[in-house]
Amino acid sequence: MKVKLPENVLKPVAALRGGIKVSHNKFTSESETRRIEPPPQVVIPMVQHIGAPCTPLVKAGERVLAGQKIGDTDAYISAPIHASVSGKVKAVAPAVTVGGRHILSVTIENDGLMEYDPSIAPPKVESQKDFIKAVRASGLVGLGGAGFPAHAKLNFPKDVKIDTLIVNAAECEPYITTDYRECIENSWDIVSGIHALIEFFDFKRVVIAVEDNKPEAIKILSSIADTDNERGDRIHLMALKSKYPQGAEKAMIRTVTGRKVPPGKLPADVGCAVMNVGSVAFIARYLKSGRPLISRTITCSGSAIAQPSNIRVPIGTSAKEIVAACGGYAAEPYKIIVGGPMMGFALYDDEVPLTKQNNALLAFASKEKEIKKERACIRCGRCVAACPMSLAPVFIADKLKKDPDPAELNELGAMVCMECGSCAYVCPAGKPLVQSMRRAKDIVREGMKK
Amino acid sequence: MKKLTVTSSPHVKSGATVTGIMLDVLIALLPALIAAVHIFGPRTLLVCAVCIGACLLSEYIAEKIMRKPTTLGDLSAVVTGLLLAFNLPVGIPLWMAAVGSAAAIIVVKQMFGGLGQNFVNPAITGRIILLVSFSQAMTTFAAPRAWVENVNAADVVTTATPLAALSQIDRGGNIAAQLTAGEIPPLSDMFFGYIGGSLGEVCALALLIGGVFLIARRVISPIIPCAFVGTVAVIMLIAGKGDWTFMLYELLSGGLLLGAIFMATDYVTSPVNRLGKLIFGIGCGVITAVIRLFSNLPEGVSYSIMIMNILTPLIEKTTLAKPFGFVKEKKEAA
User: Helix, strand, or coil here: A295?
Assistant: First the structure.
């Protein structure tokens, strides 16, 4: 689909290296986000982010209000967790979460009143420090999928100057349309979020990056990019080629600025910050209302879902409830995935609660070209061509098999791998390359400890 | 609810399979096979069948003896068999074809660990083994279309390959004189394949169709064929003192196109990265040209590919891209 882009849309500075063309399958693009009836019960895990787990602040039997903080910790890389409905705490006990781990969780029986915590009020923000504090209090984590605590991301080291904020609306994973809907439905939240960030962090340049297969979003966002004349034209829109994994943080920094984040370094080290478009819009809403992150939009789609749609669900709603809200199963599911089909987690059953960073729930009825007979590697080089991080998965997998030496695996760049799955996608021999990369990373980490 | 399938990401895969790739290569070889039957007669099919059959049988037996799972289904042995047959003259005794096939599969491929592990191309090596063992039979070429008069192609008039005649030219001969004397065929015959030579190498048109098909299907990258043929073209142009006709004769004769499109692009024995492929292709071209111009052998394609096959790990080691962000860190450290 070739679309004529508005004139003020920037072109990428560098092309994405490698990557794959994967069917977008964005069936829910036109499905307007709707709120679902809060479920009778929510299960809220105390880990919904990268970093330290929270300690529950409530006990079984207690009544909690919606938006009330129920988990927190003193650890820096972490984010507080809030009750997503009002009701009685039924249990504080480990529960199975996405990815299969048992994590201490607070189960709340919904009383159906949705009574908000009366102490909720817009935060007083006068300085950058206040801003970061407010973001922490909101419980915001990266909504794009990784779940890195947003306040930690914004707390840049004193000695680095961040000149570019990239607002990531690429949404390169197939099926998922939450960021797209955010752009269309809440464009003014995105604008005011960006303005708030500019106000407190003085970013010289803000680039909203979106893939060019979303013309409607580009149309709306390009008008946003024109609203900041009094600030000296800082906000820009950039249309990226639709290619997976365009939205991966390091790849995106390179396509937008041409800079490469060295291994083990952060975007801040090259003067960049990357935030998901949904996170930016949430910040704007939080500054206005003070309501913490207790619900989020997710895309529920796939061949086994009766009515694929975008829905807004309270955090802690089980996969089963979400499917029920989307017309139930259209067919016996063969596989259920939380997240996108390239990087998401397969579920063992559908009783698992969804958390802050989960942006999609997909259920598939058939094997959909997935299982390939594993054959010998024919060294076709497709994995080398597909790797956005310039790695040679074929050699890393080979090294792993023959002589798993931590130093040499590190030299081959194993630690740079972000597990985007492009290599395994293209492999004609059906090799489990992502697993090989994970194992290689484990071996390097173990080797570094010694 | 029935039990769900739980696997690691990614949960979608491309449709590419090893068998599909091999099938594409076989389809790409089809035009050359049809041309060979037209030019050299039905015995072509017999030679191809013997090579493919012997390759499959050798693979099966070797894997049974080594107690490895049978991998005939990946079709790689069929590709090796057909490519080897394409490198043989039509009159080759069938038992020799079978011996070459067995050597290619058992010695070159299976003894080194099977598909993906061999360090030289099995078909090329099979051809070289036959060439050094039975040089008489391997260099006795039937005249094109001679089978029409005499179906028993093995007994028909034999002919020198244009390449043999050409090798006289770069030692002081003259194309125009040779052309009028009938020592070399006109260029159009070279292009359509009405010349003496191995089964699959003669018809340039058919080989080019196959090459375009493979590139369009993204089975091969155009880098190796272009670099290989381009290098030979440049060197021959210089050697022929700017004579375009001489250069075209060189490009259309011998196994250059067959080698450049189908043998040098073998995944297993060529570099996986693009820069590596470029160097590999140029290397093949240089060695081919040097052998053709300066050695006693009329043909150098097989040797050039085999030599570059051996150099492949070295090329990869030196040309592989640094992982994302690595260069910068090294600079900082320095």
Answer: strand
Terminal C-alpha separation, chain A: 53
Going from the C-alpha of B25 to that of each of A183, B88, B104, B211, the distances in angstroms are 46, 19, 18, 9
Count of A–B CB contacts within 8 Å?
170
Binary contact (B323, A389; C-beta < 8 A): yes
Pick B325's closest partner by Cβ from A260, A336, A344.
A260
Q: Do B328 and A342 touch (CB under 8 A)?
A: no
Per-residue pLDDT of B76-108, as tens digits, reads: 999 999 999 999 999 999 999 999 999 999 999
The ipTM is 0.89
Which domains occur in chain A, in start order? 9-30+122-289 (3.40.50.11540), 382-449 (no CATH)
- List, for chain A, all residue ranges whose pLDDT scores fall below the cut of 50: 1
The alpha-carbon gap from B310 to the nearest alpha carbon of chain A, in Å, equals: 15
Predicted structure pTM score: 0.91
Give chain B's domain count: 1
Residue B171 has pLDDT above 60, yes or no: no
| Closest-CA distance of chain A to residue B71, Å | 8
Q: Is residue B7 part of a domain?
A: no
Q: Does the residue B65 lie in any domain?
A: yes
The answer to whether residue B210 is domain-embedded is: yes
Contacts of B5 in chain A (CB under 8 A): 334-335, 346
Tokens of B194: 């009405």
Q: Domain of B33: which CATH number?
A: 1.10.3430
Cβ contact, residue pair B10, A381, below 8 Å: no
